[in-house]
Design brief:
heterodimer, A: 473 residues, Rossmann fold, 52% helix, B: alpha/beta, 2 domains, 13 helices, 49% helix
């Protein structure tokens, strides 16, 4: 086992051993699954909507280069400056340049997973620019010096008691208040001032509309609206895959996303950003920038099957319904995007050397694929990425393809193939097993046997019994 | 995915049985009871003796060339147009759905495709093709059903096991909390990620035991080996069996 994989297993074990993590995630995921189910009482309507959602995303990806060009042109018409970044480094430099042009000392941030992908806060910090998270969950996580454990609810791994302790410890003049509403008030009070002091606001984007050059951003706390309107400069960062063709395409996605994510019919705020403050307008930023990040997405786009990863609208339904995620939580994955979508996305971004073991952490139960609002066949893609991780053709389209291939595992499967492709060898093997009456609980069987009885081969195989019965041919 | 039917309304005179490797070695009773159920319906059951494994373990592990070689060995064992009945939702789905991906672009794709259309999971076949009527002769008992994830989500046959158990007059079918959640088997997952799998199965058994059934049945021996293995490890009184055995045992006059 290579080092990153070993560390992955260590994090999993630590999470499984932590009763707080187990309880917090189980409770939260049970709640989210119920909420989502209540949002879609009519299965036919849900399937129709999923068809629509998938069609919109597939259509956009089918003409991605053209739509991006249209988006850029439309944005320019609207006064939005578009920047392209192939890598995270490039993206960070672009944001830094914008900050420097405005002599920015502080940046306020709305929730953005792409900025997490960029590790933007850390980067800006190195240049003396403070980046403060304004989404409550992100704020909590930042205060705790952690990373998000969930893509929609970043602090879902913590309960009220833990947050109360954190606030009492980190915030001056704040005592221990074990009350979610009161804690929210405290954060709101602090953040409210920060919005007006910030020189630059950084946000994510849910959908970028090519037809109109508008950026759609949904949220519940109003921090997104403040981030994108109060500071004089707004920088929206997003992945190139977030483009949709027409404004009308946003409708089914807006219907699917909050219902799938948090079990809400609609989010409290739906922002449509179509440019900086215009003459005569009383508010809004003077400058709006759109930063489009590639970071491996073009490579993913080139493969028709892998391309489906890019359909994702980051609703988190797959992780909310994942029995593995529910038990190990988001941090155990060690990646920005955890859960099933992370397992298929991260190897394509970071490569199989580093995270090629991620797709293995799934029982392939299919719950993720069943709930995905845009019909990404996640289980199928988990298998595909497992294949790429052990590729031996040297032609894998995935970064670091083949990095997880080990001589011993490959030899085991070769041996398995030999036995199961030969009826005679197979019969010999099964008869030997029945004659021995069992297998010693060694190697991989040891983990099995730690919580289960080891299965014993039957006295006679089905082959033998049906031969006696006269069914064999 | 909804199973596609090529035998609508027809009662086939004979079927093939693909027994699966787990049933072959560990649960032959489930295979024999499957044959008994089918034969009672007047269906002749042919068991091609050169069958081994559907190939799923290697396929799910990413070793697709190895999986294809083994799958190819099975494909040629079922000539003609008789249905292929599989007492496992997972192996049935491998043959019905995943073979199509595994063989796409291969010279024998057409043969594989034709076979995939004839593959049925056992409970699906009993309900939708044979439309069986069961006469329950057993004593009153409570039965819980664990439907394998692939039977539920890939084959779309969860309702068929329920319908069969509901035909048993003296059986009370009991549900349990988080019934549709995976038991944690997942083939090689149970070995590669033993600790997660262990957490999943122990919580699954908590939920089953809370419903206090006399018996737990399922259509997939992988799940049953996992759940049953853990139940015996912790000394649970619940009896674990393949659904074919429950059906045969209670209706065999």
């Amino acid at each position: 086992m290579d080092k990153p994989t070993r560390q992955f297993h260590v994090r999993i074990q630590e999470a499984l051993n932590d009763p707080q993590i187990r309880a917090n995630f189980r409770r939260a995921m049970d709640g989210l699954m119920t909420k989502r189910a209540n949002m879609f009482p009519d299965p036919d309507e849900l399937e129709r909507l999923r068809d629509l959602g998938a069609a919109v995303r597939r259509n956009a990806l089918a003409q991605l280069p053209e739509l991006l060009e249209r988006l850029e042109a439309k944005c320019a018409e609207n006064g939005i400056t578009v920047h392209w970044a192939e890598s995270v480094d490039e993206a960070n430099r672009i944001v830094l340049d914008i900050c420097r042009r405005h002599s920015a000392k502080s940046v306020i941030k709305g929730k953005s997973m792409v900025s997490e992908e960029m590790e933007l806060n850390h980067y800006l910090g190195e240049f003396g620019i403070e980046a403060l998270e304004a989404d409550l969950g992100e704020y909590i996580v930042q205060l705790a010096g952690q990373l998000p454990s969930h893509i929609v609810m970043p602090a879902i791994h913590m309960n009220t008691r833990q947050i109360a302790e954190l606030f009492a410890e980190k915030l001056e003049g704040v005592g221990y208040i074990e009350d979610a509403e009161e804690l929210t008030k405290v954060a709101r009070e602090i953040l409210r001032h920060k919005f007006f002091d910030a020189d630059v606001g950084v946000s994510g984007v849910n959908f970028a509309v090519a037809e109109t050059g508008s950026l759609v951003l949904i949220e519940n706390e109003g921090n997104g609206r403040l981030t994108t309107t109060a500071p004089p400069v707004h920088v929206a960062v997003t992945g190139i895959e977030k483009v949709v063709e027409n404004l009308a395409d946003v409708t089914p996605l807006l219907s699917l996303l909050p219902r799938s994510a948090t079990g809400q019919n609609v989010t409290t705020y739906v922002n449509m950003i179509s440019g900086p403050r215009r003459d005569g307008e009383r508010d809004g930023p003077q400058e709006v920038h759109l930063l489009l990040l590639d970071n491996g997405r073009t490579r993913t786009h080139a493969d028709p099957e892998l391309r489906q990863t890019l359909q994702c609208i980051r609703c988190s339904a797959c992780m909310n319904h994942c029995p593995v995620y529910a038990r190990i939580g988001g941090h155990a994955y060690g990646t920005v995007y955890p859960g099933p979508i992370g397992e298929i996305l991260m190897p394509q971004i970071l490569g199989c050397e580093e995270v090629g073991a991620l797709p293995g952490a799934s029982s392939l139960c299919g719950a993720c694929g069943e709930v995905c609002p845009v019909r990404i066949p996640i289980p199928k893609m988990l298998v595909r990425l497992r294949k790429e991780a052990v590729d031996n053709t040297g032609a894998s389209p995935v970064k670091g393809g083949g990095a997880q291939r080990s001589f011993s595992e490959a030899a085991t499967w070769k041996g398995w193939e030999k036995v199961h492709a030969s009826p005679a060898l197979y019969r010999l093997a099964t008869r030997t097993a029945t004659a021995m009456g069992g297998l010693p609980a060694l190697g991989p069987l040891k983990t099995w046997a730690s919580v289960r009885e080891v299965p014993k081969p039957a006295a006679k195989t089905l082959h033998q019994r049906l031969e006696e019965r006269g069914n064999s041919r | 995915m909804q199973a596609e039917h090529v035998h609508p309304g027809q009662r086939p005179r004979q079927v093939y049985l693909f027994g699966t490797c787990l049933v072959d070695l560990f649960f032959p009773e489930a295979g024999v009871d499957t044959v008994s159920l089918l034969e009672r319906e007047g269906v002749k059951v042919i068991y091609p003796k050169d069958q081994t494994c559907c190939g799923q373990p290697a396929y799910n592990s990413g070793y697709h060339d190895e999986a294809r070689t083994v799958a190819r060995q099975q494909v040629r064992l079922f000539p003609g147009d008789a249905p292929v009945v599989v007492p496992s939702g997972s192996c049935a789905s491998m043959m019905k759905h995943h073979y199509l991906d595994l063989f796409r672009g291969e010279p024998d794709f057409a043969e594989v495709e034709a076979l995939s259309r004839r593959v049925y999971e056992l409970t699906e076949f009993l309900v939708r093709v044979l439309d069986v009527r069961l006469n329950d002769l057993g004593a009153p008992e409570k039965v819980a059903i664990h439907t394998a994830c692939h039977a539920r989500r890939e084959m779309g046959v969860a309702g068929d096991a329920d319908a069969l158990v509901d035909q048993l007059a003296n059986v009370e079918r009991v549900g349990f909390t988080r019934q549709t959640e995976c038991c944690g088997f997942g083939g090689t997952f149970a070995v590669k990620h033993g600790p997660i799998s262990a957490a999943m199965v122990s919580e699954k058994v908590d939920c089953i035991e809370a419903a206090a059934p006399d018996r737990l049945v399922g259509g997939d021996c992988g799940c049953l080996m996992n759940i049953g293995g853990h139940m015996r490890h912790r000394g649970s009184p619940v009896k674990v069996q393949h659904i074919a055995s429950l059906l045969w045992e209670r209706t065999d006059g």
